[in-house]
Amino acid sequence: MGTKERRQREIADRELLFLEAARDLIRQDGLLNLAMARIADRCDYAVGTLYQHFCSKEDLLIALATINEQNRLDLLRQVMAWDAPTRDRMAGLAVADTVFVRRYPEHFRLVQFAYTEVIWGAASAERRRQSLEAGKPIGELVAALVTEAVERGDLEAQGLKPNEVAMGPWSVTLGTHNLVHTEGVLEQYDIRDPYRLMLRHVHSMLNGLGWKPYFDPSDDAALDRKIEQLCSEVFHDLDCG
What we know:
The chain is mainly α. It folds into two domains: 1-53, Arc Repressor Mutant, subunit A (Orthogonal Bundle); 57-233, Tetracycline Repressor, domain 2. The chain has 13 helices and no strands. It is globular and about 60 Å long.
C-alpha cells in the first residue's frame, strides 16, 4: 500500500471512529445532547480534527443516517432474488424494511431527525449528495421490480413511471415507521399491530394499481402464510414477525 492509499485509509478509519463515538453518545444521552466537543474528546482527538471530517454537527448527523443504507440495501436485494411473483416481492420489500427497522431501531430514529428540513437544509451540499447517492441503489432496485412487473404483464403502469408507482408503497411504509417511533400516537388510537396493518394497506394499494394476482388483505390466514413464506425462504435467521 502506497503512502497516498495509507493516508486515505487512516482518514476513513478516523471518520468511522468519530461516527461510532457519536452513535454511542446518542444512545447514552439522546440526539439533542450530542456535542461535537464530546465526540472529539471520546476519541482522544482535538475538536478541530473532527471538524476536518465534518464541517458541522448537521453534516455528522447526515453521515450517520447514511452509514447503514448498505445494510438496508442488502436486505432488499435478498427479496429481489427471491423466486416469487413480482407482487409478492413488492410486498416483501415492505417486510424487509420492518426487519431492518427492528434490527437497527436507533438508525430510524436518527433518520427521522436528520432528514428534517432544519438538519438537511443546514448540512453541506456534499454531504447531502453523498446521502442521496447512498440511497439511489434502493430506488433503482424498486424501479426495476416495477419494470419487471409491467413486462411480465402483472401490472399496467397507467402512465406512471416506475418510481411513481413505487412512491405509494414507499409512503405507506415510511409513514408507518414514523408513527411507530412517535411514542404514544398509535396507542392513543388503539393500533396494536401497526406493521401488520401496514402490509394490509400495501396489499390494498397494490390491488388498486391492478397488480396481479389479486390478494385479499382482510384474509388473516392468507396474510400469515405470505409472511411465513417470506421469512422461511428469504430471512431464515431474522425476526420478521
